[in-house]
Design goal:
alpha/beta; about 25% helix; globular; disordered C terminus
């Protein structure tokens, strides 16, 4: 019997107490809490494991920006992803693959094809230098869904989503590379039964609370951030409402058919010589390959033009499993 692959899970956070328990419980149940690693961006309160009796592997870094060779502050994403890339590279000396997510993201697979993410990564289809799947921006419909219970699997509480190629991150890494916010420096495999579930919009109350805190930080000049942090909580609420106002489509998942023509009928690695054509380069991190760069603007628009319901079988896709790994 073939030994299962050793998988490490990595995230970076600062003062994150809402989404981290979801990320932790899901991945700990699949791969074991001892294989989870956290970069703490100098939280005001040191992160702890949500399960008592489990230690947390933490690397703490200063909150201040790192300096470049001229002693000038680096941009936040540039410095943090350099750290993430090098730490992931180091972990690959001990592990077969490293999963990197923000704390409001998890990778899941279609339960019709694979029992769970661990099963997929141990299958022939889960073997690639880097893997990406389709991005699902999961949203709360307050008229149908109650606030998230952080102790319960998230996809048993949420079904509404919008396709989002931006969140189709190639962040399951099996070879050393440079990682970017939405991309990676080497060619990667896109798998249509793999999904990155993005949860930032999955709880309205948390959205409102978080946005008010971010706006307060901007107003107090405690941090320099992009324009989304400057939005009011009500503006953020309206942004979510615009997603809920999209016309709804029912039935089976349709992204496979929607993007197949963009891949030119080729099954090679995205960014590889035998893979689909790269249609454009992003302005930021132009050295990184991203799923969206291989899709036409019409396809991206079509993917984001409707709201969908996850098929009922996906309720089990984010379950916390009682495995040997979780008991170690």
């Amino acid at each position: 019997m073939t030994e299962p692959r050793r998988i490490a899970c990595l995230t970076m956070l600062r003062d994150e107490e809402f989404f981290f328990p979801i990320w932790y419980r899901y991945y700990a149940s699949l791969f074991g809490p001892q294989n989870l690693f956290v970069i703490d961006h100098k939280s005001r309160r040191r992160p702890t494991a949500p399960e008592t009796g489990h230690n947390l592997n933490i690397v703490t870094v200063p909150f201040e920006h790192a300096l470049d060779k001229n002693r000038k502050p680096r941009k936040l994403d540039g410095s943090r992803f350099q750290l993430i890339s090098r730490l992931a590279e180091g972990l690959l000396t001990y592990y077969d693959a490293v999963i990197f997510n923000d704390t409001d993201e998890i990778f899941v697979v279609d339960p019709a094809r694979f029992a769970n993410l661990k099963d997929f990564l141990n299958s022939p289809e889960g073997q690639a230098p880097v893997l990406a799947g389709m991005g699902l921006d999961v949203i709360q419909d307050p008229e149908e869904e109650t606030p998230l219970d952080l102790t319960q699997p998230v996809l048993r509480q949420r079904r509404h989503f919008v396709y989002s190629p931006v969140w189709a991150k190639p962040h399951i890494i099996a070879e050393p590379c440079n990682i970017a916010p939405h991309g990676v420096s080497i060619p990667f495999r896109y798998h249509p039964d793999l999904y990155l579930v993005h949860l930032k919009n999955a709880d309205l109350a948390e959205i409102m609370k978080r946005q008010a805190e971010r706006q307060g930080a901007v107003d107090a000049n405690t941090i320099a951030v992009n324009c989304t942090w400057r939005m009011t909580a009500e503006q953020k609420k309206s942004e979510l409402a615009s997603l809920l106002d999209l016309p709804q489509k029912f039935g089976e998942l349709s992204h496979r058919e929607m993007i197949k023509d963009d891949f030119d009928g080729k099954d090679g690695l995205l960014g590889g010589d035998d893979g689909p054509s790269r249609r454009r380069k992003a302005k930021f991190f132009p050295w990184a390959y991203k799923v969206r760069e291989f899709l036409t603007p019409n396809t991206v628009s079509a993917l984001q033009s409707h709201r969908y319901l996850l098929p009922a079988r996906f309720q089990s896709a984010s379950d916390f499993l009682e495995t040997d790994a979780s008991r170690d």
